Amino acid sequence: MGHLQRIDRTIEGLPYRLFPVIASLGLSSQKIVAIDPSISFGRPFIAGKGVRTATIVERLDAGEPREAVAADYNLEDSEINAAVLYERAA
Question: Where are the domains of the chain?
Answer without folding.
Answer: 4-89
